[in-house]
């Protein structure tokens, strides 16, 4: 049975209702809402035209849907972080980005090469699976901005802060490695493009993204909180749409200037958060973005489930499954554990941080973005990435509630 266009409105309404109920229903159980939505998508796939909802058949739809979801999530996590940015304050973040992430890419690419993949395909797989997810990891991230006179940004939960700040930045910083894989296919020998890639795609475009984020975030922060005219002082008029306007505007400007828009959006959110840090308007901005993020997340998880019912995982091989298992259960935990050596984190906090490298919507976006240059391996790549994302959703979704409770109980005992 296939549902027609009008019937899809019914499906959408039921999905939104389900999304409103599930988080409350599952709050006391070790089952996350993302698991339930993927499961609902598997069932929905039995009733709709699956061929039209496959990321292989509709790569542009998958790319832009995932892109918008990530953008909204990046604005949300940027607004949620209380801690002012700084080298020492963000020490765990820099370690996860500069040590764990490249090591993870290298390990996945190396495993893929050893299992028979072409070097460029192995590198693409490593880059696609590199970013941890700001969308599906809400159970282990900071819950929102702390505002008012009693706000104490330095008292953040270190585990939640590390996972939130890492997810906010590594979605954008995976781009250079995706480009490296594409260049390896389209531009030939590494020596022909390595210097240009390092100077422009790794350094130059990152700097542009950061500069756009800082500049626009500062300007909009001044306008929202201290503009001379009340007409432009959006914090007084309580216009939370500012968050969405900044998300889209900053991303568009950074992309037009050939910078990394994901980086720009997250940085802009941090800079806006720093303007009048204790103003309660930040809570309204975050709440508005959070609701939009939930709706987009529900949609993309439902579509992932539909695609799986439609055969997305059919080309999966033992090698692909092995790479997914290695990444989630071995590579990410070990690389992040090593990266966090020497930090003030306790052993239990360090292990939980290392283990919760949730893979999700970022991987879907990057594969949809770069897949056209890897047509021969594309079905296998989608099967491997789809398997890894579902594995991550299930493993991390089941483990999140009990492990975070364990950490909270240990902190209570120490205090």
From TrEMBL:
A GO BP annotation: proton transmembrane transport
Keyword flag Ribosomal protein: no
One MF annotation (Gene Ontology) recorded for this entry: antiporter activity
Chain ranges passing through the membrane: 6-22, 29-48, 68-85, 97-130, 173-190, 202-221, 241-274, 295-313, 319-339, 351-369, 381-404
InterPro entries attached to this UniProt entry: Cation/H_exchanger_TM (IPR006153), Na+/solute_symporter_sf (IPR038770)
Localization terms from the record: Cell membrane
Protein name: NhaP-type Na+/H+ or K+/H+ antiporter
